[in-house]
Every structure is written in C-alpha cells, then in structure tokens.
Amino acid sequence: MKFSRFTWRIIGLIVLLGFTAFFFVPVIWVLLATTKTDTQLTSAGPFAFGAFSHVAAAWRALFGFQSDAMLEWLKNSAIYSFGGVAIAIVAAVPAGYGLALTQFIGRRTLLVITLITMIMPATALVLPLFLEMNVVSLTDTAWSVILPFSFFPFGVYLCYIFFSSTIPKDLLAAARVDGCNEWGVFRYIALPLARPVVALVAFFAFVADWNNYYLPFVMLSDNSKLPVQVGLEYLISSTEAFNPGNPGAGSELVKRPELALAILVAIAPVAIVFLFAQRTLVKGMLAGATKE
Amino acid sequence: MTPSPVATVPDERTSARRGGRTGGDAPIGTSRTSGYVFVGLYVVLLLLFGIAPTAYAIYLALTKVGGGFAWGSNFARAYDDFRFLPAFEHVGEYLAIWMIAEATLILVLALMLHSLARRTSAAFRFLFYMPGALAGAASVLVWLFMLDPTLSPWHLLLSGMGFSQIDLVLLPTHLPFIFAIMAFWTGAGGWIVVMYGALNNIPDELLEAARLDGANAFQSALRIKLPLIKKWVVYMLILSFAGGTQLFVEPQLVGQATAGLVSNTWSPNQLAYYIAFINDNFNEAAAISVSLLVLGLAGAALLVWRTKLFEIS
Question: Which of A124, A129, B112, B159 has the least C-beta neighbours within 10 A?
Fold first, then answer.
C-alpha cells in the first residue's frame, strides 16, 4: 500500500488532532464541570455549560468546607513550597558555583553523588526520612517537609552547568586582579549574572515541591497541616459520589463540581508558573543551544 | 509520579554540546578552602537528607526490631510476604506499558511536530505540555472523572468498550493501563519538548545531505534522526523506570475513590507504607525501601556511567 504525500499529511493531521483532544479535552471538561450542579454533570452532557452562579456556589461550598480547610491547605502548600525553594536556592547557587569554578578535594565525588541523587527518585527515601525526623521530634511540623524539600540536587546540577558554561573565566580573573576576594567574585560578578538560572531552579523546585504528595502524606498527620495535594485525597474521601452509602459519618459532604473546582484551585499556582515560565524556559533552552 | 521530565531540558541541551569542555580548569589563584565554603550548605543538606536516610534505611533493613543484626531476614520476610510479588508485578506491568508508549508514541509525536512549521509545532507542544501542571493527585482526580462512563466526555468510547459504570473500568487488571494513561497525560508533553529540543540540535546540513542523497522523510527519521537522539530516549526510559517503581499516589487515590476496590498494598511503596505504619514494622518496611532504592540506584548509575549524558569532568 503506497500513500501519496497528501494522504500522509491528512493521516498526520488526524493523529495530531487526536492527541490534542486526548491532552486537552480533560482540561476543558474540568473547567466546564465547575459550572454545573452535581446532577447536571450526569444529565447535561459533558460539554454543556451550566451557569456562572454554580461556580460561585461551588466556590463557597469548597472554601466553606470544614471551616476553611481548603484555604488552610493552600496556605500550607505555599509555606512548604516557598520555604523549600528558598533554602534550595540559597544552597544550590553557591554550590553550583563552587563545583564549576573552584578546585577542592572531593569535587568530582560530590558531583557524581549529586548526579546520582538527582536521578534517584526521592520517594524511596521518604520512610527513612520520617524515622530521622521522628528521632529529632520534627514529624508533623512544617520543617519535616521543608527541610527535605530544600535538598535539591537537580538545582545544584543546573547551577553547575550554568556557571561552567556561561560565565567567562576572564571576567572572574579580572575581578581577582582588581583585588576581589573569592566571596566578592561570587557576590558581585557571578551572582548578578546568574539570575536566569536562579529563576530556572526556582521553577523546577517549586513545581516539584507543590506537587509532592508522598512526603507530606507520610510526615504530617494533623489535617490542618496538610498541603493541598494531600487535601485533595481528603476531599475525595468526603465525596459522596465516590463513597456511595459510606460517607464519613457526620462529616460534611463534597459534591463533584466542588471537587473539580478544587482541582483547578490546587493546581492554579503551578499552572500560572507554567504559563509565565514558558518564555523563560524556552529562552534558557535557546541560550544553551546558541552559545558555544 | 516520575520526576518531572521537563526538568531535564536545560541541562541536557547544554551538557550535550559541552561534554567534557568544562571543569578541571579553575583559574589559578582560587584557594581550596573557598570551594568548601561555597558547597558547604549544600553538603550539609546532602548529608542530612540524602546520605543519612539512605544509611539509616540500610541499617534498619539489616537489624531486628528489638536490635541486633538480622542479616537478610527482613528482606526474606518482605520477599515472602504474599503481597510483595503482586505489588512488583503491578508496577512491572505499568512500567512495561508506559515505557513502550514512551518509546513509540512520544517519539512519533516529536518527529511529527519537528516536521511542522515552528509556530504550529510550538502551539501543539504547548497544548501537550500543559497537562503537566496537573501532575500528582490532581491528575488522578481528573482521570477518575474521565473514566466514569456516566459523565465522561469519552463516554461513547467507554460504553463502546462495554463499560457502563466506573467500577467496571477500574478493575484491578485494568489499573496498570489506567496509570500509564495518567502518566502519559501529565508526562508525555514534557518529554516531547525534550525530544523536540534534541531533534533541533541535529545540524541542518546533515538532514540536507540525507535529502540530497534521496532519503525521504521516513528514512531520514529512522536512519538519521532517531540514532542521533537515542541517548535521550535511553535517558527518558531510565528516569521513567526509576520513578515508575515508586508509584504511590495513583493507586492510593484510586483506592480511596473506589472504597476498597483497589488493594491498599497495590504498589511496593504502598506495601512499605502499610508494613511500616499499620504493621508497625519499620525494619521490614526498610527492606522494601532499600530494594526500591537499589533499583533507582542501578538506573542512576547506568545513566551516569554508561550513557555519558552528564559531564562530570
């Protein structure tokens, strides 16, 4: 069977549109689901639009759930993520600089360990981390989540690549000749130039931290301390449609449009970062491709 | 879920073209001690939250609950557990499906996008990439809706396959497939961007030469483009393997939503969690953690030393 060029183009187009539907229909469905009532979800057809008043109602119900639990979870997520990202950057930027532009015994070993820990899934260490935190009585505190988040070897590697490939060595040498000490060279020459990589590390660390489920799930037992990702599980368990005949006795019930809204609220920060960072990311990638 | 694949874009691109060029040539005059100061905080974090838990897990796995050396008995007990083998089988099935989808669909899509005009392909890449923002618990929730024939936009497809209600869709034997779909939905877009980037790195002259020699689009894709991006494919597969063995949130949430239809020890990580917190046996749980760690380590070591993807000069 031999197809003409034209036929191939049509087949290609159909395949691409098919995958576009696969990737995007769920997103559209979730957006539309927030405009419907629970009954309309099953009766009105998947792509029907309900009413904006339903969004408002779902919003009130979601944020009213167990006296502002959702707001509490979002706040927790923000504290854990920003805390983790902040320490990760403070540690990673100088470390990447040190690995790239200074010499010390053990530098290569540190680099290899960084690579290995970066590739290894962090999940495998969660149970031992819990025991470690337990020894120092930090479980069920914000630190038990923030501190493991702040260890971000991938950020160190990004900084290492950045400093070893984009900072002209002559520039640093010139600063030394002018009497800058090592810290000054880093502080006044390298750091101001490193802004793009700081943004990159912040982006990846934030997305990883915000979406992390297993670590806070294990570390935290107090409901009011959960991040929103784990809070979503709590919402599922309170959703009548998913637990027919077995909703937690006496607990407030969640309807499915509220759950759909909860998804959107929970991922909003990451989605916003995705939208804004798109340009930065592409720029960073192109920078890597054009220099040399 | 697997570590964010997008996370690899920048370093891949740069490390690819700068292999072995940097490092080792620090400017004269840098003192050794300054290096330690720069890496200091990171090393402390690495020791506390990377090395220490690893060492602790190994120690626990090798000792008895009350203390004393246990040799391999924790491992033996974990491996003998009737839930152990099924948990690894589940994850194995999931990985097989997901990795085959990666090695075929993602490559085909990346190659197709690469043949489009830049602007068009950018739009598609963005559309494919965006669900990545819904990784983790959110994606599971979305797919719980998508797989419910009573409200899904795919209800025709689902009912065509004979599924009239969600309980029939979420049968235990279907789960590896379903988790692979979730992984594909959130993860494929990022990898497509990576592969697209790798394809863009191929010099135009090379493709032009192939064209002049009479290669058609398929031949140049198969004989030129694919061999040149092979190492990124290996990279993607190894990362997915290491991450996929850690499956937790997907079976956990689906179990929650189906009220016990899915075992709460479906994946090895769930089993480790169960043994640790429900059976209160951290030593045996550590044996499972260490086993998972070894799988992840093997993948990592393979990547670092065999594929030469990273510069460690």
Answer: B159
